[in-house]
Design brief:
The complex is a heterotrimer. In chain A, 16% of the residues lie in helices and 13% in strands. Chain A is of the alpha+beta class. Chain A has one domain (6-38, 48-260): Alpha-Beta Plaits, CATH 3.30.70.20. The longest helix of chain A is centred in the middle third of the chain and has 13 residues, at 166-178. The two termini of chain A are 30 Å apart. In chain A, 60% of the residues are buried. Chain B is of the alpha/beta class. Chain B folds into five domains: 5-37; 49-105 and 472-505, Phosphorylase Kinase, domain 1; 123-174 and 384-471 and 506-540, Rossmann fold, CATH 3.40.50; 196-374, Dimethylsulfoxide Reductase, domain 2 (3-Layer(aba) Sandwich); 588-716, Barwin-like endoglucanases, CATH 2.40.40. Chain B is 36% helix and 20% strand. In chain B, helix 8 links the parallel strand 9 (207-213) and strand 10. In chain B, helix 6 packs parallel to helix 20 (508-519) and helix 10 crosses helix 12. Chain B is globular, with a radius of gyration of 29 Å. Chain C folds into two domains: 1-48 and 375-398; 49-371, Formate dehydrogenase/DMSO reductase domain (Formate dehydrogenase/DMSO reductase fold), CATH 1.20.1630. Chain C has 15 helices and two strands. Chain C has helices spanning 15-42, 57-68, 71-81, 88-112, 121-124, 131-155, 158-162, 164-200, 218-246, 253-288, 306-324, 326-329, 332-359, 375-398, 405-411; strands at 212-213, 216-217. In chain C, strand 1 (212-213) and strand 2 form a beta hairpin. In chain C, helix 1 runs antiparallel to helix 14. The longest helix of chain C has 37 residues, at 164-200. The two termini of chain C are 27 Å apart. The chains are: A alpha+beta, B alpha/beta, C mainly alpha. Chains in contact: A-B, A-C, B-C. Chains A and B meet through helix 1, strand 2, strand 3 and helix 4 of A and strand 3, helix 4, helix 8, helix 9 and helix 25 of B. Chain A: It holds the Pfam family Fer4_2. Chain A: GO terms for molecular function: 4 iron, 4 sulfur cluster binding; metal ion binding. Chain A: This is Molybdopterin oxidoreductase, iron-sulfur cluster-binding subunit. Chain A: Residues 12-42, 106-135 form the 4Fe-4S ferredoxin-type domain.
């Protein structure tokens, strides 16, 4: 039994402070650069543009000068699914087990060589975190030189998505084993590329099961309620769908927190029960 | 043959078993899927030992420390350098993308000479000889001063070598691109009589009043400002943004004051008037250093009372008063100016009005305030030899008035008998893109008989050059860098080559040395170094050992003591009138806006950066203009329409983007698009360069181009 | 020219006329094949699908052909299992249509996946939790069943039947057909259902998500039921088309009315269930996720509440009434209207359950995604239609597809 996570498995997650995010795009590019994400000549069709980390721009919908905007970075949410049992919306639908839940990390994987491109998972994901390789990835002559061997470039016809930089976890785990720390990975040893790059320090990454970790302190996930944040200024996207994401957001602005989910007229502000049922 | 049910079943099963047992089908099926998993056209990156090399990014004046991850010696990823004084691990998207600049196959790969409409690749020797011959001919015919040079800034050895070269040749015509730093320096020199640069201690200020700065959109040292902005939450520090558009900075601010464009100075002075009237200013400070404070006090209280300014700015008097009260009440208030990223000079009067707030608050050279940072020349150059020709040429005035680079091109364009500039050397700059009225600048460049461009990329200026001397990109070379914009911190750093040159390029400094050597005589002897590296080591003098060992010197904040505040000057500035164009024909105001994800300096954005740009800024190859729905209604355009935007300077096809965050009557267009990028279609030919629509406006107070917008009209295509 | 192949006594148009017709349709087929090859060689960038629209026209076509091909299993079930013997006069047609529909569905699936050469991973690396896995298994098994059901009919061709082996084979296969029909019906229940489950399990998509029974969402049952209900409508529509084109009566009215009546009652029960499902979903399921009904039908250029009305009233209640009421059913025109509306109704339901699911924004700050298919998608969707026309024409010309044809001709 390891001591670092109180005998429980890791549950890696992310907290993004939307009040600090400036929408600068560093996270997006750090991710693309870390994970060999390709690019095309025309990337302005945003529905066909692979961005594992995508920054949405939200507005409060009011006219000048009462309008307000907010940036919201969206990686893969690494959903725990209904009841937080690991049946995320995408995993349960993949017919070929090409995407899977790591019960030791909480990370939703994607096996590119197994995926045969049915795109069911994309339809299942309400966050649009999954991207299809409509094209063969192509790099201008010589630019393949910067490709990293840690993440294999994907072939045409398969789905890809944010992996919480899983290769970095593997590296940290390997080092820990090598140094005879078993799976005791220090908080700083495993950080995603976006977290590391964010110049505003808006992204925090760590083990949600470890009260010592910053992510835990920031949102205080409720273990009896599928990890719902107990911190009032924190929220998760589409909490009511019971997808149980591992990405949390923090904002002081009420309209931003409200935009995180759907509410019918008059519902906002009232206690809304989300059953967090057992799931299938 | 009679078939009964049994034999039928037997036959069927037998056949099925036969096919199933045959390995061919199964093997083939399996092989095919394995083939799809290893398509030869999908690259397989080589593995190897992982190492990290530290250097400093010079894509923008921020100069962040970066760490390059290498695998088996090949650079694969750029990360921020932890513990580096400027950025401490954070890094902007352009810096991360630097490897796309490095490996870009559309870089200028070898020296090239224009032959009519096409390019001819030549050897370095041939190219250098050609440039040297041309210089020599001009010198021999007494036109040494017809040689001009433009660099992006005037810090460090590269621009130092250029400037030195020009002096040795005999020309004063050395220009740098105008930035807000120039205006701030000019202002400090006028108000405080100091040779100092401006420093803003944003990270420690508890109330930042920003007049249109893109404080978190690339202003000053971008990453350093991101860090300062984030820490506001914990420090409970306020940010108030005065801007006619809900920029990212305005959205992040605690308060957004949408003053009409061009009235920022009025608003600042109105706040001054409240502070003076209500005795909210630092009397001790004003008494000690202030000169002719009464004149200023009288002016602002009479002419800039909040009630009067309400009309011009559109901001309620009560709001102006409350800002004044908050600003005065703050422990460490700070007023800052410099539109967008601050890479245009801006109005000196506006800067002065804003700085008057700092002077009234007395928060100068104090924690969280405005700093006047001593400007010492860090480099020690050996003495320069100037022959007769050089001395004679150098005595002549610059072609562009006030050393303004815009004026230089205006002079070329307005000259009737040939270009007064006969040879233009451009080093690490892209005036054909970055200067206002870019099309006009391009015309001027075409008119100049001989243009040498020291550049890594086939950009808008290189495209019009006669000779291109291909430069290393920053990851391939050493260079001394000086972080100075925006912050109070002064960091001198040494960037180091982390990759060997990929193409037949040379260090830009080395190219200059080579030309000088080819010219022989006094010019050659003024450049006694064999290589650029030798020059760098020698001119950095005492700094060298620390720089080469530690990589940087953090000199912290060293203020030049302020001993005077000439308030009379605040009132003496003329300011400049609104952007050119008449209101009747051009009912709207077009403003250029800066966006963090689009580089607006010398370099075009990388493919990665372009990919991150929203489709409300760029869609296919159309730039979008932001317009308030109300204004769009009046103009008769709706969201997504293709329209033409026309200004007195130019016309362009754009797409309409309705945005409630832009003030009615104003149209915003993002800077950083419409680049020419040779064969690089990932970044070139996308959208419109807003600089082609906006003409330069000379600020009578500084002589620099201070345009930030222009009158315009929009019509549906 | 080909008279030796034509069933004895059957009257068929002259071969050149037939060949010309087939040639015309073959051009369309080749166009589709060309588009298909483009998709295989160049990849799915040939389509207008995108990351918001991963499931689009093709998946709709798949679901639609399988729904309207449902006549095969349901008629088979009625005839072989429930022993409604009159239906033997239309079962051949139902089987051929079923065969065409299911082979088309498999073909479209083979084009629709990004890595067709790895398509078999769905069996090899099967994830039992996935509705699509269930679809794949049931679909391919049922297709084998359909093939087995189709073979005896082929063997009844005049020339083939002369070969004693084929004659006996055909005879024996007929003997065991009840077993296959029962298997087919069983499999069909599951694959039709699992196709419904494909959308219904998407708990990240409030427009599609339905609660249900055990592991199956309500759409699972609704899809099976609707395929059984509407499948015969399409069988009847095709039958009527044949009769129209050949200007011959091919199936006796009592058979047609019987199938129409069964279909009518099935649609009635289905549409009641569908209405209850819609009310529960609109009143309970969606609101729990923060959505009101009209959120799914407003703020966009296409999907208005009209589509729900069209599906339930025009495609459900109207055909249900027309087919259950004897007077209407036996009115030729109303019958035709009813079976066509029924066919369109079930196709519209499948459209809504695929394309509208993808179009509705889920995150509050997301936008509606509308999509227009590329010509390659349209061509590959028409490809199976052309293929179906050719195959069914060949079957009609050379096989005794309509057992009552001779009798009806003689009685004329």
């Amino acid at each position: 039994m390891t001591q670092d996570n109180h005998g429980k498995a890791h549950k890696y997650g992310m907290v993004i402070d939307l009040d600090k995010c400036t929408g600068c795009g560093s996270c997006m590019v750090a991710c693309m650069s870390e994970n060999n994400v390709p690019f095309k000549e025309n990337e302005t069709d945003k529905k066909d543009s692979i961005t594992w980390m995508k920054v949405f721009k939200l507005t409060n919908g009011k006219p000048f000068p009462d309008i307000d905007t907010c940036y919201l970075p969206r990686p893969c949410m690494h959903c725990g699914g209904k009841g937080d049992h690991g049946h995320s919306p995408c995993i349960s639908v993949c017919p070929a087990t090409a995407t899977d839940y790591g019960y030791d990390t909480g990370i939703v994987s994607q096996i590119y060589t197994r995926c045969f491109g049915c795109r069911y998972c994309m339809g299942a994901c309400p966050y649009h975190a999954r991207y299809f390789n409509w094209w063969d990835p192509k790099w201008p002559d010589g630019m393949e030189e910067y490709l990293s061997p840690d993440v294999s470039p994907r072939m045409r016809g398969v789905v890809e998505k944010c992996s919480f930089c899983y290769h970095r976890y593997q590296e940290a785990r390997d080092r820990a084993y090598h140094e005879e720390r078993r799976d005791h990975i220090e908080e700083g040893e495993y950080q995603t590329a976006c977290t590391q790059a964010c110049p505003a320090g808006a992204i925090t990454f760590g083990d949600l099961n470890n009260p010592e970790h910053e992510v835990y302190k920031l949102v205080k996930p409720d273990p009896h309620n599928c990890g719902r944040p107990r911190e009032p200024k924190a929220f998760r996207l589409l909490e009511r769908l019971q997808t149980n994401p591992k990405v949390y957001y923090i904002s002081e602005r009420e309209w931003v927190r409200k935009a995180g989910d759907n509410y019918r007229k008059g519902e906002w502000g009232k206690e809304i029960k989300v059953s967090h049922g057992k799931g299938h | 043959m009679k078939i009964d049910r049994r034999s039928f079943l037997g036959l069927g099963l037998g056949a099925a078993a036969g096919v199933a047992a045959s390995p061919v089908t199964w093997k083939l099926t399996d092989d095919l899927s394995i083939w799809t998993q290893n398509w030869p056209w999908t690259p397989v990156p080589r593995d190897g030992e992982v190492t990290y090399d530290d250097t400093v990014c010079s894509l923008c004046p921020g100069n962040c420390g970066i760490s390059v991850r290498k695998i088996a010696g090949r650079a694969v990823k750029i990360e921020g350098r932890s513990g580096y004084p400027v950025n401490d691990g954070g890094v902007c998207l352009h810096g991360i993308s630097a490897l796309q600049y490095l490996y870009d196959p559309s870089r200028v790969q070898a020296p090239m000479v224009r032959k009519g409409d096409s390019w001819k690749t030549v050897t370095w020797e041939e190219a250098i000889t050609l440039v040297a011959e041309k210089t020599k001919t001009l010198r021999e015919s007494g036109k040494a001063d017809a040689v001009a040079c433009i660099t992006d800034n005037n810090r460090g050895t590269i621009s130092g070598l250029c400037k030195r070269f020009l002096m040795a040749v005999g020309s004063q015509n050395f220009y740098t691109m105008d930035t807000m730093d120039k205006s701030w320096e000019m202002l400090i020199s006028k108000i405080h009589g100091l040779n100092a640069s401006a420093g803003f201690d944003i990270a420690n200020s508890d109330y930042v009043l920003s007049f249109g700065t893109g404080f978190i959109e690339g202003w000053g040292s971008p990453v350093s400002n991101f860090i300062a902005n984030s820490s506001r939450k914990e420090r409970h520090a306020k940010l108030v943004q005065v801007e006619y558009r809900l920029s990212s900075t305005a959205a992040a601010a605690d308060q957004w004051i949408p003053a009409k464009p061009g009235t920022e100075a009025d608003l600042a002075l109105a706040i001054c008037s409240v502070m003076i009237n209500d005795n909210l200013y630092d009397k001790g400070c004003v008494k000690k250093f202030g000169k002719e404070f009464d004149v200023f006090a009288k002016l602002v209280t009479e002419k800039y009372a909040p009630e009067l300014v309400t009309r011009t700015t559109g901001i309620d008097a009560s709001k102006i008063r409350s800002i004044a009260a908050d600003f005065a009440k703050a422990k460490a208030p700070l007023a800052i100016a410099g539109r967008g990223k601050g890479d245009s000079a801006g109005s000196l009067m506006e800067f002065a009005a804003v700085h008057a707030l700092n002077c009234l608050s007395g928060n100068i050279n104090k924690k969280g305030g405005f700093w006047t940072i001593a400007k010492d020349e860090p480099l020690t150059w050996p003495s320069l030899e100037m022959d007769d020709v050089a001395t004679k040429g150098y005595a002549k005035a610059t072609i562009g008035e006030n050393s303004s680079v815009s004026k230089l091109f205006e002079a070329v364009n307005s000259s009737e008998n040939g270009s007064p500039v006969e040879m233009l050397m451009v080093c690490n700059a892209n005036p054909c893109y970055n200067l206002h009225n870019a099309k006009g600048v391009q015309e001027a460049v075409k008119k100049i008989p001989f243009v040498v461009n020291i550049s890594s990329y086939m950009d808008d200026t290189a495209n019009l050059a006669d000779v291109i001397l291909p430069a290393h990109m920053f990851l391939e070379m050493s260079q001394d860098l000086y972080t100075s914009s925006g912050t109070t911190q002064r960091v001198t750093s040494l960037s180091k080559p982390i990759a060997s040159p990929i193409f037949d390029t040379k260090h830009p400094g080395e190219a200059v040395i080579m030309i000088a050597k080819a010219l022989e005589g006094s010019i050659a002897s003024s450049f006694p170094w064999e290589t650029y590296d030798e020059c760098l080591e020698s001119v950095t003098g005492e700094m060298w050992s620390t720089l080469s060992e530690e990589g940087f010197i953090d000199s912290g904040s060293q203020a030049s003591e302020v001993s005077a505040m000439d308030f009379s000057l605040f009132a003496s500035f003329k300011g400049f009138t609104m952007p050119e164009g008449d209101k009747k024909n051009y009912p709207l105001t077009l403003v250029q806006v800066d966006h963090m994800r689009l580089a607006s300096g010398t370099f075009a954005s990388s493919p990665f950066a372009v990919k991150t740009v929203s489709d409300s800024i760029l869609k296919d190859s159309d730039s979008l203009v932001e317009i308030n729905p109300e204004t769009a209604d009046q103009v008769g355009v709706s969201d997504g329409d293709i329209a033409f935007i026309e200004t007195p300077v130019g016309k362009a096809r754009v797409k309409v983007n309705l945005f409630d965050g832009i003030m009615p009557g104003v149209i915003a267009m993002t800077e950083g698009l419409g680049h020419f990028a040779g064969d690089n279609h990932y970044i070139g030919g996308k959208g419109v360069n807003v600089n082609e629509l906006i003409g330069p406006v000379t600020d009578p107070d500084s002589g620099l181009d201070a345009a930030w917008g222009i009158r315009a009209r929009l019509s549906r295509a | 020219m080909d008279s030796a192949l034509i069933p004895k006594g059957a009257r068929r148009c002259p071969f050149p006329v037939f060949a010309t017709g087939i040639a015309v349709v073959s051009v369309v087929l080749l166009w589709g094949v060309f588009a298909m090859v483009l998709c295989w060689l160049k990849g799915l960038n040939q389509t207008n699908m995108n990351d918001y629209y991963g499931f689009a026209l093709w998946i709709w076509a798949d679901l639609a052909v399988i729904a309207i091909g449902g006549g095969a299993f349901f008629t088979g079930l009625l005839k072989y299992v429930f022993g409604i013997d009159e239906l033997k006069n239309i079962i051949n047609l139902a089987v051929v249509i079923g065969f065409i529909c299911y082979s088309s569905a498999l073909l479209i699936l083979a084009i629709d996946i990004g890595q067709p050469l790895r398509g078999w991973f769905i069996f090899w690396h099967a994830n039992v939790h996935s509705m699509l896995t269930e679809v794949a298994f049931c679909l391919s098994l049922y297709f084998s069943v359909l093939t087995i059901e189709f073979i005896p009919l082929i063997l009844e061709n005049r020339q083939l039947d002369k070969v004693p082996f084929f004659h006996n084979l055909s005879h024996n296969m007929h003997g065991v057909m009840a077993v296959f029909a029962a298997t087919g019906a069983f499999l069909s229940c599951f694959h039709q259902g699992s196709l419904g489950g494909v959308a219904g399990v998407l708990y990240g998509r409030p427009f599609a998500y339905r609660e249900g029974l055990l592991v199956w969402p309500w759409t699972f049952f609704l899809f099976t039921w609707s395929a059984a209900a509407y499948g015969p409508c399409f069988t009847l529509t095709v039958c009527k088309m044949f009769e129209g084109i050949t200007r011959k009566k091919l199936v006796k009215d009592n058979v047609i009315h019987l199938l129409a009546k069964i279909s009518g009652w099935m649609i009635t029960t289905y549409i009641i269930a569908k209405i209850i499902d819609t009310i529960y979903w609109a009143g309970v399921t969606a609101p729990e996720m923060g959505f009101s009904l009209m959120d799914f039908y407003s703020d966009n250029a296409f999907y208005g509440i009209w589509i729900l009305f069209a599906e339930i009233v025009l495609g459900g209640i109207v055909p249900a009434v027309f087919l259950t009421v004897k007077r209407f059913r036996e009115n030729k025109k109303l019958l035709l209207v009813a079976i066509i509306l029924g066919t369109l109704g079930v196709c519209l339901n499948r459209w809504v359950m695929v394309l509208q699911v993808m179009a509705v924004p889920v995150m509050s700050f997301d936008t509606w995604a509308l999509y227009i298919p590329s010509w390659q998608e349209v061509a590959t969707t028409i490809l199976p239609v052309a293929y179906g026309v050719i195959l069914i024409s060949l079957a009609y010309r050379y096989l005794p597809m309509f057992p009552q044809e001779q009798e009806l001709y003689d009685s004329k």
